[in-house]
Amino acid sequence: MIDTVLIESRDGIATLTLNRPEKLNALNYALIDRLLAILDAIEIDSSVRAVILTGAGERAFSAGGDIHEFSESVARGADVAMHDFVMRGQRLTARLEAFRKPIIAAVNGLALGGGCEITEAVPLAIASERALFAKPEINLGMPPTFGGTQRLPRLAGRKRALELLLTGDTFLPQRALELGLVNQVVAQDDLIPAAHELARRILSHSPLAVASILTAVTRGINQSIAEGLLIEGEQFARMAPTADLREGLDAWIARRKPNYPGSWSCPDSHAISKAPPPSQGDAFISSSSSGDTPS
User: Fold this and answer.
1) Where is this region: Disordered (predicted)?
2) Among residues 22, 43, 97, 117, which one is catalytic?
3) Secondary structure element (H or E) that encloses residue 262, with its range
4) CATH 3.90.226.10 residue ranges for the chain
5) Average pLDDT of the chain?
6) Residues 76-100: tens digit of each pLDDT
7) 20 to 30 A Cα–Cα from 83, which one of 53, 76, 193, 277?
8) Sheet holding 132-134, edge to edge
9) Is 8 a catalytic residue?
């Protein structure tokens, strides 16, 4: 039996490949269930700190839900279709959206319907120049069902999202970049290397800080600013006693590269290194830029 999702782990990065190339990596029920199970395992695996999600072959990232399987569920009634297809797909996109480790979609071809909705849900995405996006559900006489009517307007704005949802028009990767659906557009051969490079940049930071930022943004983005600030404060309060924050402060004061433990356990005692405060204009220097100050 062919594995519907392939896994390769290296240097703290797990690459997950949707593996139904003969079906343009369509999301059948077995693939969705397999991907959900893998995400559950990866989230508690401390050796994996970032995920790259891509599609097998060069034709498709994912052409969306498996229409033949979906039509069989519809034939058995609305309740069956809701349970088998809609709720399963929404569970997947919600899981990707709320994952506490960074997920980078490497969109290597067609991203239609559910494939586009996966791209909307993940926190980061890079598209190849050969990618092609669409919200074609209206061509089947139905609305999107994996969250597309909710996430795309939040990313692109109501009017631009409605144009795509109501027409089913395809759009190119540069348009996806303009809409906020992807972070970068690169040559096909550079797609996976670009995803790895972005993942490595993130991995240079505290995994606890990364998880806290992902949680604060995901939970806060649909709240009021006041409620979002409470969530942000909760995430800081959770991090404040950890060795990662102490290590970050110690490393900055000592002008050295930090070595983050990456554990939520709190040390019994750990004094921050004593040093005179920076003089006026003494800039915080990160590994990638200068002149930034910690917020």
Assistant:
1) 263-295
2) 117
3) none
4) 5-203
5) 91
6) 999 999 999 999 999 999 999 999 9
7) 53
8) 60-62, 110-112, 132-134, 170-171
9) no
Catalytic, 117? Answer yes
Q: Which of 97, 120, 137, 247 is catalytic?
A: 137
Could you give the CA distance from residue 120 to residue 183 in angstroms, rounded to a whole number?
A: 11
* DSSP string covering 193-218: HHHHHHHHHHHTS-HHHHHHHHHHHH
Q: Determine whether domain 207-275 maps to CATH 3.30.450.40.
A: no
How far from the centroid of its chain's Cα atoms is residue 284's Cα?
A: 29
**pLDDT given for residue 266 in this prediction:** 65
Which CATH code is given to the segment(s) 5-203? 3.90.226.10
Which residue type occupies 6? Answer: L
Boundaries of CATH 1.10.12.10 in the chain? 207-275
Q: Which two tokens stand for residue 164?
A: 């795509």
Cβ-Cβ contacts under 8 Å for 11 (sequence gap 6 or more): 200
Helix, coil or strand: residue 110: strand
- d(CA 287, CA 255) in angstroms, rounded, equals 11
